[in-house]
Amino acid sequence: MPARLYLEDLHIGDRFSSQATTLDAAQIKAFATQFDPQPFHLDEAAAEQSFFGGLAASGWHTAALTMRLLVESVPLHGGLIGAGSEITWPQPTRPGDQLRVESEVLEIVPSRSRPDRGLVTCQSLTLNQNGDVVQRSVAKLLAFRRPQAS
Predict the structure, then answer these.
(1) CA pair distance 135, 125, nearest whole angstrom
(2) Is the separation of the CB atoms in 2 and 14 below 8 Å?
(3) Is the CB of residue 76 less than 8 Å from the CB of residue 82?
(4) What is the pLDDT of residues 94-120, one digit of tens each?
(5) 150 found inside a domain
(6) How much is the pTM?
């Protein structure tokens, strides 16, 4: 586990890379059954006739996998606490896709009212095995300052 980073350890342009995880059809269907029960996430034949032209993971499934990979790769002290996000899915995640996340710090804004913290804006690209972007998110994350020695 990498050392946990505080606000003052971060710099614009810092990059973080995750390990990869592979998604299969059974996982896609299980997630969809519970959280997004639409035919193009549940049934190959129905999915073939849909906009997606084949079985596709729910965008929320891709987002959940991305979150797991972010937790494992962006070592902020205190965890990854979101304060807002924009998310897009430029193309579907498919069975057999091997996903990884590449993140970059875009902005760092220390809080004026709470000197123990700030907001860090990160762009995270979720990529498949071909390097295609299946999710893009830009999130504001709470980052804490290193405690002052007494």
Answers:
(1) 6
(2) no
(3) no
(4) 999 999 999 999 999 999 999 999 999
(5) no
(6) 0.94
